[in-house]
Automatic annotation (TrEMBL):
It comes from Flaviaesturariibacter aridisoli. Residues 1-34 form the signal peptide. TPR repeats lie at residues 140-173, 174-207, 277-310, 311-344. Keywords: Signal, TPR repeat. This is Tetratricopeptide repeat protein. The keyword Transport does not apply. The keyword Signal applies. GO terms for biological process: cell division. Pfam families: ANAPC3, TPR_16, TPR_8.
Length: 356
């Protein structure tokens, strides 16, 4: 039986296809081996430069190795390490995440992911990797990281729980009691916060910022004596006295009946902020409370110069004149202020009550 042209074609195709697939497979293998060889070459060169301390050069070589082989743990790990050294933290974190996906469950990888996630404010991830790190290395101390991550995530109950564990792991870490104090303060429980502020300052006695915060917490608790104590402690230790600090310090002096000290600070401040109505009113009220009525009138007058419609200032000028014994003049000014702002009549009713 003779073969037709069609039969020849049918019998010829399978050997040709097999030959093509064999060639393609060989080419793929050759390319893969070439890439692996290239990755190994750049990786070795990068390691040599790394040992010489030439971090940037090493990084470029590690990056070249990575471009040829993204599935080799050593290649990915070396690149992550170099990125960390160059402080390119977001990129480093991505490489460490790749390393984890490749099956790396080492303590170092989990530690890096915990730290990077925490510093990048990815708090749930920081907690996750802290717990994984603890799983592979039970001796590692991670309670502080978990506690701080929970605090920054405003999960105060869990924060306090882990920070108390952190205090056992490292009793010398002043940040631990400080963060517990902040957690209680943020929950408006100043009474529970105070012992932890004091403990933090025992561990870090030169921290003027914490002294200032402690002073403010005592102020919020109406404990004026201790509030002033910590204000002065902060000053003795060299705190930078900005306007906010000075204003609060002045209030602390006034609350402790140290009027001259408080007024001296406020009067110095008003020289730099002469149009500050709040500051002018504070000085006027302090003088009024100290029965220094002429001085009080002077400062409320300054407020009226800045705003002639300021009825409360006019009313208090009237009250000051009455306290001085010039009752008719004072009442006339109070009446005029009430015409400007009828709500001020309530103040007159309070003043007329027995004991006022």
């Amino acid at each position: 039986m003779s073969l037709t042209r069609s039969d020849v074609k049918k019998r010829s195709i399978p050997p040709m296809r097999k030959l093509f697939l064999t060639a393609l497979t060989g080419l793929f293998c050759a390319t893969t081996f070439a890439q692996t060889d290239s990755a190994a070459y750049y990786s070795d060169k990068g390691a040599q430069e790394w040992l010489k301390g030439r971090v940037l050069v090493a990084y470029k070589l590690f990056d070249s190795a990575y471009s040829y082989n993204k599935t080799d743990k050593k290649v990915v790990g070396d690149l992550a390490k170099a990125l960390m050294a160059l402080r390119r933290y977001p990129e480093a974190r991505l490489r460490y995440l790749e390393l984890e996906k490749l099956g790396d469950q080492s303590a170092d990888t989990y530690n890096q992911l915990m730290t990077l996630s925490f510093n990048m404010r990815q708090f749930p991830e920081a907690v996750k990797y802290a717990q994984l790190l603890k799983g592979v290395d039970p001796s590692v101390k991670v309670a502080y990281y978990i506690g701080k991550a929970q605090y920054d995530d405003e999960n105060y109950g869990e924060a306090i729980k882990y920070l108390n564990e952190a205090a056992k792991e490292d009793p010398s870490n002043a940040q631990v009691p400080y963060l517990v104090a902040r957690a209680y303060a943020d929950m408006n429980n100043n009474k529970l916060a105070i012992p932890y502020f004091i403990k933090a300052l025992e561990l870090e006695p030169k921290n003027t910022r914490w002294m200032y915060e402690t002073a403010l917490i005592y102020y919020a608790m109406n404990d004026d004596k201790n509030s002033l104590k910590y204000f002065e402690l902060a000053i003795d230790n060299g705190i930078r006295q900005d306007n906010e600090f000075k204003e609060n310090l002045a209030i602390a002096y006034l609350n402790n009946k140290q009027v001259d000290k408080g007024l001296a600070i406020l009067e110095e401040m008003v020289q730099r902020r002469p149009a500050d109505l709040t500051l002018l009113n504070m000085i006027a009220e302090a003088n009024y409370d100290a029965k220094r009525y002429e001085a009080a009138i002077d400062y409320w007058d300054k407020m009226l110069e800045l705003d002639k419609t300021n009825a409360p200032a006019l009313y208090m000028i009237g009250m000051s004149y009455q306290k001085k014994g010039e009752k008719a003049k004072g009442q006339a000014l109070c009446d005029k202020a009430i015409e400007m702002d009828p709500q001020l009549a309530r103040n007159r009713q309070k003043m007329e009550m027995p004991g006022m």
